[in-house]
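User: Teach me something about this protein's shape.
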Amino acid sequence: MAKPNLPSSHNHMTSFADGEIFAHHAVFAQCPNVIRMHFYVDEFEVCNPIGSKSGKHKVLGVYYLVGNMASKYCSEIKFIIIIIIIIEFV
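Assistant: First, the predicted structure itself:
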């Protein structure tokens, strides 16, 4: 499932490995098999986000994804790992 950090052969961008920053980054040039970690932060409402009580039950989720996987796996829920959930009480 994991693949080396090589750009795709397409004429369009399909991952971070297709960009200019990746192509010229010292770490990725010296260690082409380094594991890339993609982190995401998402804040969401768990109870009626439209009503008068909106903002009362905010939750912050921090997730990561191993960026070396083939593109077809990057959007599958089982490969997006939750690191922490923070509940904000107002």
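Now, about its shape. The first helix runs from residue 20 to 24. The beta strands are 37-45, 57-66, 81-89. If you'd like, I can walk through any region in more detail.
User: That's plenty for now, thanks!
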